Amino acid sequence: MKILAIETSCDDTAISLAEYKSPYSLAKNFKILAETVSSQEKLHAEYGGVFPSLAKREHQKNALPLLIKIAGSLNLKKTKNLANAEKGIKLGKILERNPELSEQLAKFLPKYQKPKIDKIAITIGPGLEPCLWVGVNFARALSFYWDIPLLGVNHIEAHLYSCWLTPKPLPKFPAIGLVVSGGNTQLALIKKIGQYKLIGETRDDAAGECFDKTARILGLGYPGGKEIAKWAAKFKKPAYNIHLPRPMLHDKSFDFSFSGLKTAVLYDFKKRDNKTKSSENYISEMAKEIQDSVTEVLTAKTIKAAENYEVKSIILGGGVSANAKLRLIMENECHKRGLACFLPDPQYTADNASMIALCAALSPKAKNYNWKNIKPRPNLKING
Ligand code: KG4
């Protein structure tokens, strides 16, 4: 089976082409034939977070150029310009809300033969609705034009298996999965692949969002998680007596809350004089304290869930799982308890389309759609 996967849920436009034997299980070979990502990080830096309408515009601009980038692997063959008026009109209707993409595809598609792919996988949620729509409409257009069926993929579920995009031992189930990104913090009991119980989530800001917002308070760049980690690594010795809360650490539930942490950072920052606010020692001490608080809470709750549900493995995914401190303490705590700890290769922690292809191949929850009946689900949960 060859699968073309598309991801546009947030600020990365990504396309991958993968090959696998169907039915697929993690034990079998999954080969990425091509993968490409266009990141909008620099563009959103000015806003200290993702600006949805800007992200939508960029997805529209980037989708086709990324497909063209992998044209060699897709083996796209030129054909005599077979513009078909009826197909052209329908294509225009599918892409009514994406005029720029519509114009590009109307010129591009008639020039090529249908590629040899079996399925097109597309992220249907969760994510920013305007961004999800661009990917879904792009996938619908290709599905209609090439007559290739669609598979709708849950972005959170895909993050859970991103670990297996690089060779790894097989996970033992049941497992606890923690997906931590800029938009999501979800803790799930994974009974087996495709069977999830959402046991905890954030009640306000996501962990990555907390990094992004506190970095902004400190005048650091975007994405905040990387900046906070970089500054935390510069910390030498305490000088400012900073003590941030560990939100909901002792709460009975498996939920999280990070907005209070952001407020605590803001209060501390505001009471400092200008010289302190811009000093390397203060920023590094604060960054270390933020990182310690977030990573301690994430680890403690995940371990508590693992013990409570008596699981065998812990699986991490999402942009925040790139955090070296989180990876280290999670691995240590797992090791102490004889739990297997699965961490994605850093290159696959952020949004990518290879994980969408893998999840489409693997999960019984990846549903079949046709171009007429698929639409985004911005608030989709892991168990949705
Ligand atoms: O999964 P992702 O690429 O996009 C979505 O939000 O879906 O995650 C992005 C988030 C951002 O909030 C960013 O600050 C955070 O991941 N992040 C990190 C690190 N690298 C990125 N957080 C902590 N430590 C990092 N090294």
Please characterize this protein's 3D structure.
- The chain is built from 14 helices and 11 strands.
- It has 384 residues and is of the alpha/beta class.
- The strands form 2 sheets. The chain has a 6-stranded mixed β-sheet, with helices on both faces.
- Strand 6 and strand 7 (185-192) form a beta hairpin.
- Helix 2 (52-69) runs parallel beside helix 6, helix 8 (207-217) packs antiparallel against helix 12 and helix 9 (224-232) crosses helix 12.
- It is globular and about 70 Å long.
- The site of 5'-O-[(R)-(carboxyoxy)(hydroxy)phosphoryl]adenosine has 20 residues, from helix 8 and helix 9.
Bound molecules: 5'-O-[(R)-(carboxyoxy)(hydroxy)phosphoryl]adenosine
- Average pLDDT: 96
Quickly give the CATH architecture of the largest domain: 2-Layer Sandwich
Over the alpha carbons, how many angstroms does the gyration radius reach? 22 Å
Helix count equals: 14
| Largest sheet report | 6 strands, mixed
What CATH calls the topology of the largest domain is: Nucleotidyltransferase, domain 5
Strand content: 15-25%
Q: What is the tally of beta strands?
A: 11
Question: Would you summarize the structure shown here?
Answer:
The protein is α/β, with parallel strands linked by helices and 384 residues long. The chain has helices spanning 41-45, 52-69, 71-74, 85-94, 99-108, 129-146, 155-161, 207-217, 224-232, 259-271, 274-277, 280-308, 324-337, 354-362, and strands spanning 2-7, 12-20, 30-39, 119-125, 150-154, 175-180, 185-192, 195-201, 313-317, 340-342, 367-369.
